[in-house]
Amino acid sequence: MIRLPLLDADDAESFPDPRRALSEPNGLLAFGGDLSPQRLLAAYRRGIFPWFGEDDPILWWSPDPRCVFRSEELRPNRSLRRLLTRQAWRVSFDQAFSEVIRACAAPRGDGHGTWIVPAMIEAYEALHARGQAHSVEVWEDGRLVGGLYGVAVGRLFCGESMFSRASGGSKVALHALAQLLRSWEFPLLDAQVSNPHLLSLGAHELPRESFLREAAELVRHPDRPGHWAEQQVDLQALGDD
Fold first, then answer.
1. pTM score > 0.70 for this model?
2. Looking at the chain, which runs of residues are DSSP E strands?
3. Does position 142 have pLDDT exceeding 90, yes or no?
4. 147/133 Cα distance (integer angstroms)
5. pLDDT tens digits along 195-209
6. CB proximity list for 3: less than 8 A, separation 6 or greater
7. Taking 90 as the threshold, does the pLDDT of residue 35 lie above it?
8. Peptide bond into 222 cis (omega under 30)
């Protein structure tokens, strides 16, 4: 039997120490609470995130190890550089958040994506309205072909999900985001739970203790609130990295 702390419904800042998360299932920490902007931001600042299915209570996680990208190390490989020279794609930020999160939530051939339930979509749209959740969009002739979304706290970007409707679409979104994060001195892009696909894109695994220590320093920096719609990334320059 699994015994978990129940979050205080009236205290959005109340979370157990993430080091107390279960080892099986890996990282499960607590349940309950809500998905208010205040609680979500409090969770991300502590290295905790929500992840649950449609028929589950709200579940909170802090896995060990943690999957992360280093923005300074994330550079396009040869095949992606070739793709960037061939495709007439355009990247934008925060111009189609609702479309991106719904594309990420759509069922996929591998069965992933359905955990982004309607309550999650509503919660992250509320964060986006506050200028704390952000999207990256990749366009081809006005059609959205890839993207990702996540939450920025301090100098830490917490990635949530990404999608592709054309080969390489999510990779371009990831590298465009990394270029922007480098320019703002955001060294870490949290990818939460490791899997072979993320590792193939250049992610690393960090012991939870190392991640929590580094994240705690990054979230002490002032937030960069507001939408990022004015930001631009030169895909040609990205291909030259």
1. yes
2. 6-7, 28-32, 49-50, 59-61, 66-70, 89-93, 133-140, 143-153, 156-164, 188-192, 204-206
3. yes
4. 14
5. 999 999 999 999 999
6. none
7. yes
8. no
Written as six digits, the tokens of 185 are 């001195």
Residue of higher predicted confidence among 225 and 153 = 153
Mean pLDDT across the stretch 103-129? Answer: 85
Distance CA(189)–CA(202), nearest Å, equals 11
What residues contact 16, with CB distance under 8 A and at least 6 apart?
Answer: 5, 29, 30
Looking at this protein, which amino acid is placed at residue 133? Answer: A
- Could you tell me the two tokens for 9? 């419904």
Query: What distance in Å separates the CA atoms of residue 121 and residue 86, rounded to the nearest whole number?
Result: 34
Order of strands, sheet of 66-70, starting from the edge strand that comes earlier in the sequence: 89-93, 133-140, 143-153, 156-164, 188-192, 66-70, 204-206
pLDDT, residue 138, reads 97
Peptide bond into 57 cis (omega under 30): no
Question: In whole angstroms, how far apart are CA 236 and each of 79, 92, 110, 230?
Answer: 14, 14, 32, 18
Domains of the chain: 6-64 (3.30.70.3550), 67-240 (3.40.630.70)
